[in-house]
């Protein structure tokens, strides 16, 4: 905690809560604030951009094949006359939705599994840990690729479920360790003596105390999921045609990256900006919740 934060907190009239201190630390991180701005702009482009686009993502202009960016087609056109701006916005929208859904599902599953395993212990703990160990040794990328026919020509939500199923194990271990230390606290013992059910203790007393871990994990999972989705879609195992994502757009434009750069450049730039923004936000949240982590990084850098 800095001298400024100490002076503000020590003043009775301006005493800050923990949430206010976290927001103050986060706002002082310029990269984190820049990440928020960039991510908001990405969401605006993804969900509001289609209303301003003169073409739909599934509309073809056969009189404008492989045209460079112009006033008619802002990002140019594809090999079959598709508007690259509309396609990029659609791909960004799909990648953001998948990233958010997988982050929420995987972090929620990690919180529930780790919370109950750490609190109940015994057979529940051993069963959850056995499942985590089994999933950690499985090649998730290969399994999702093999199971891709399940969602080919069907809903992409199956793809979201598969990504979430392989993204919660490490966080569940961390939540379990934190819960095991919290279950010996007085407030948890008091709740047990009062006959509060285990599920209420986990959701009302234990998980709120590890909320910082879950928030940071969910934020970083968004970027990791977008990269995973892009890689799988690039190889043809992710979002299936006729729908598009950033990965499928990058795959289609890679072969023409030097001759027709607009086919690759805009989707690739959107991917880089989105992942960097999420990474900056995740780092800012980690430093805001745990100021000591930032100090330790500076010490390591100096040494």
Features:
303 residues, mainly alpha, MetI-like fold, 15 helices, 70% helix
Quick recap of the structure?
The chain is 70% helix and 0% strand. The chain starts with a helix and ends with a helix.
Q: How many domains, in number, for the residues? A: 1
Quote the beta fraction.
under 5%
CA gyration radius, whole angstroms: 23 Å
The beta-strand count equals 0
Shape: elongated
CATH fold type:
MetI-like fold
Mean pLDDT: 83
- Written as H for each helix and E for each strand, in order along the chain, the element string is HHHHHHHHHHHHHHH
Would you mind describing this structure in some detail?
- This protein has 303 residues and is mainly α.
- The protein has one domain (21-292): MetI-like (MetI-like fold), CATH 1.10.3720.
- The protein contains 15 helices and no strands.
- It has helices at 3-10, 18-27, 30-47, 49-52, 84-120, 122-136, 140-146, 157-165, 169-182, 186-193, 198-206, 211-234, 246-254, 262-289, 291-302.
- The chain is elongated, with a radius of gyration of 23 Å.
